[in-house]
Structures are given as structure tokens and as C-alpha cells.
Amino acid sequence: MLCKVGNIEVWRILEINGPFLRPEELYPTAGPDVAEIVESHAPGSVCCHSGRLILPIQGFLLKTPTHTILVDSCVGNDKTVPGVPDWHQRSDSRFEASLSAAGVGFEDIDYVLCTHLHTDHVGWNTRLMDGRWIPTFPNARYLMPAADEQVHRLRNGDMYLESVLPVVEAGQAELVQAGHMLGDHVSLMPTPGHTPGHVSIMVKSGKHEAMITGDALHSTAQCWYPDWHFKYDADAEMAVTSRIQLLEAAAEKDCVVLGSHFSLPSIGRVKAELGAFRWHGQS
Ligand SMILES: [Zn+2]
């Protein structure tokens, strides 16, 4: 188990932990020293051989008293992602093994919660069976941001056709707005910008709270530099505004923060400091 939030168990469901792109590519407005800055604030996060940012691809499993909830479903197997060779047509058992380690099988998931509809967050929504994409979690409702679904329905690309549309056609998708509550413990906090409908997740049990960032941030260095633009933000300025609001909320609540793409173990707290923010990692 990664941690407990009151009486809710949180488990890391890790699929990949490897180099992605170089910080200079990911943060184009951050200046020529960005790799050194990232490495100084997140030691070990820049691969010393390739210079690329090491990015975990992971979901988080929440076991509440009433529901078993998977937040984000990673890249998946057999998916079409030619732009990222490490993600393209994978065949790997690590995701399923992580679920098993948490004592959970595909049929046990009650809800799949997608922070946004990008390839590395929706992949295990479906799996390929006899040449057809079927929902991986037969008993789950899948909650997806309506604004993202609308964009991708029109675009009709591989991600939508392989990982979203089969869930919609199976009648298991619920298109939701930010602010949506899932039971008594989980709510969707609007953090648009990375995608139009992007949400971060608040988990609450008694006086204990935790926040799952999704892709509002990708490195803890962005606590110090929330104004950096990120290569894959759909609306970079809106993403900056959302990032600062998320950091302010995290610092004010002094809650546990789980960074979806933060260097492992991806858990800590945010402190406000001299008009900026600081990350306190938890080992
Ligand atoms: Zn991502």
C-alpha cells in the first residue's frame, strides 16, 4: 500500500518508469538550464545517459469503505501510439500484476476515473480480445471529462477509437463535469488547460485529505516554477492558472499530494514559501 487517507487505502498501480523526453523539449519556455533546475529540485529525475526526464506512468487505486476506484489506466497493451515507441503496441503484465498485488482483479473495479483523455491515462480502459476492443473492467462505470470526450469524438483518432469509444458503446461511460462527486469520499477538481476537461482528484476521509494531480504538473520542479509552459498543454496559460490554483489549495490544506508523473515515490506535500511553492517529498 502506498498510503492511507483516513480509512481509504491508496495503492500505486505502476506500469512504466522510464525516460520520456528531455526537459528542454517538455518545458520550452523554461530556459537553457531547465535540465539542471529539474534535476536540482527532483534529484535522479533526469536520466544521466539520455538527458531525458524519467516519467512514471501509473494509476492510483482507491479502496474506500464502499468502492474500489482506479484513477487513470496508463498506456495499456496493443495500443497504437506510433509517436512514442515505448508506448506503441506494448505487451506487458506489470499493470495487471500491480492490481493483483493490491488484491484486485479486473472484475473488482467499481469505477474507473480518467483525469483526462490522453493515451497514457486511458490505455487499460480496454483490451484486445479476439480482434475486438472490450472494456477491461466488466463491472465498472467509467467517468470521463465530458469536454475531453467531445474533442476526441470529433478528432476520432486511435486513442478514442481504441480506448474510449468501446467503453461508450458498451454503455459503461459516464461523461462528467468538474465538481462531480463520486460517493462520499472522492471529488473531481477542475484543473483545465492540459486538456479542456482535465480534473485533479480530491480524496477525503474524516479530516484526512489527499490530492491526485493528474497532468496539472509533471515534475515537482514545477512547484517552484508553475509558470513554465508544458509541451503537451492544450492551453498553456490556462494550465498555468490551474497549476497555481492547485498548488495553493494543496499548500492551504496541507494535504498529501500524489503526483501522477512525479518521480517515484510520487508522494509528498506542497508548502507555500515567499510567493512560490516548495515540494516536501515523503520517502
Ligand atoms: Zn500523462
List its salient traits:
Metallo-beta-lactamase, Chain A, alpha+beta, binds zinc ion, 283 residues, 7-stranded mixed sheet
Protein architecture, described:
By secondary structure, the protein is an alpha+beta fold. The protein has one domain (3-281): Ribonuclease Z/Hydroxyacylglutathione hydrolase-like (Metallo-beta-lactamase, Chain A), CATH 3.60.15.10. The chain is 24% helix and 30% strand. The protein has helices at residues 23-26, 34-41, 94-101, 119-122, 146-155, 158-169, 221-224, 236-253, and strands at 3-5, 8-19, 54-63, 68-71, 111-113, 126-129, 132-135, 141-145, 173-176, 181-182, 186-190, 199-205, 208-212, 256-258, 267-273, 276-281. The strands form three sheets. A seven-stranded mixed beta sheet has the order 1-2-3-4-5-8-9. β15 (267-273) and β16 (276-281) form a beta hairpin. α5 packs across α6. It is globular, with a radius of gyration of 18 Å. It starts with a strand and ends with a strand. The mean pLDDT is 97. The site of zinc ion has 5 residues, from α4.
Question: In terms of topology, how is this protein built?
Answer:
Layout: E1 3-5, E2 8-19, H1 23-26, H2 34-41, E3 54-63, E4 68-71, H3 94-101, E5 111-113, H4 119-122, E6 126-129, E7 132-135, E8 141-145, H5 146-155, H6 158-169, E9 173-176, E10 181-182, E11 186-190, E12 199-205, E13 208-212, H7 221-224, H8 236-253, E14 256-258, E15 267-273, E16 276-281
Helix pairs in contact: 5-6
Bound molecules: zinc ion.
Zinc ion binds at residues 118, 120-121, 215, 261.
Strand arrangement within the widest β-sheet reads 1-2-3-4-5-8-9
- The beta-strand count equals 16
Q: Structural class of the helices, strands and pairings?
A: alpha+beta
For the termini, the CA-CA separation is 13 Å
Tell me, what's the shape? Answer: globular
Average pLDDT over all residues: 97
| Residue windows where pLDDT falls under 50 for at least 5 positions | none
Overall radius of gyration: 18 Å
> Which small-molecule species are bound to the chains here?
zinc ion
Oligomer: single chain
Biggest sheet descriptor: 7 strands, mixed
